[in-house]
What we know:
The chain is α+β, with helices and mostly antiparallel strands. 62% of the residues lie in helices and 8% in strands. It contains 13 helices and six strands. The protein has helices spanning 4-28, 34-53, 62-85, 92-112, 116-133, 135-139, 148-172, 186-221, 233-250, 264-271, 273-288, 314-333, 359-375, and strands at residues 255-261, 296-301, 304-309, 344-350, 381-384, 402-405. Strands 2-3-1-4-5-6 form a six-stranded mixed β-sheet, with helices on both faces. It is elongated and about 95 Å long. Residues 389-406 have low confidence and may be disordered.
Amino acid sequence: xxxVPTLWTVFVVNFLALGxxxxxxxxxxxxxxxxxxxxxSAFAAAMGAALASLRVVVDSLLPLLxxxxxxxxxxxxxxxxxxxxxxxxxxxxxxxxxxxxxxAALSFFIFAxxxxxxRVLIYSxxxxxxxxxxxxxxxxxxxxxxxxxxRLAGTVAILIVAIYALRVAGNLLxxxxxxxxxxxxxxQSALFLILIFLxxxxxxxxxxxxxxxxxxxxxxLALLDDLTGVGNRRHLLQRLTEECARSERGxxxxxxxxxxxxxxxxxxxxxxxxxxxxxxxxxxxxxxTRLRPGDMLARTGGDEFCIVLPASTLREGAMIARRVLDxxxxxxxxxxxxxxxxxxxxxxxxWSREIGPFPDRLIxxxxxxxxxxxxDGKNRYAVYDPxxxxxxGYDAAFELxxxxxx
Length: 406
């Protein structure tokens, strides 16, 4: 059986190592706020374990009071980190309440009424409460999926709470020998080692949560345009493929707008590329004010943009095109001095059975409409509307009839 000092040393070293790992994560990813709480929790746990271990050499319960309070504070910090991971607001009120009440209760059963059973009960409840309060977050599904690390952390939290409950029951029922921080019984040593292992697994779950979050952020960056912050061509094709597949299954149409800034080359040549970039950013902001929830704006390259309109008809697509045109025209009329007016041409197309699962066909249809708008004088939109068959065997999918709107 391992000696008590050895077990406490393992506990301290374990949490110091975890603290160093989280400190590195916190320094490397300063915007990942949860890492700050998990760093503090690991170092606080190491300090609490070090203080509690002094009970072996000091004939006083003060080290247990100090160490136990700090360990409870560490559990609260870990719970706060979980809340921040899920973008929930955290306050110190709950942490101060749990830590303060635990300190007061432990002090009472040390100095006013000496009862080791009550001290074990209070400490176990105070350690378990922050874990139990975060189980709903850890085991819930977000965006249709569950974070594997969160599932691991939630499962481990349940096991830790169960270990504390077993520890309390064993102490109250005097199973496994009398409880003592100076000399552990075989059962106490086994439970202590299990708690050390579970604490490592709990933090490993946090690390998996962090990795999954950072991986998703990198994936999101790969789908965003650096200049405007909207989707890029890869994101557009991914979304169009999904919409085409959905429409083919359910038969519900959707619309696509292809947009080109008129005279953009002249803007770059006359005012410089910085001014051109500013125009692209300004157009992005204007267009987004005229979109509906669920609509997607993407920059496909240069001065070209696309807007995906889920569950929308050609008529609804034309309505959005007109709204985008109107906001650009209003902004151009308000330009004074060195302001650069922005004008756009827009092509509108709707998914049909002939397009099927091929987004490039829909893009080609919207491009045809865009070219018609350009040829008709720019600063306007046109819609792609295939005519019905004129004779048997006539393929209407490639027939273009354009209704132009100035």
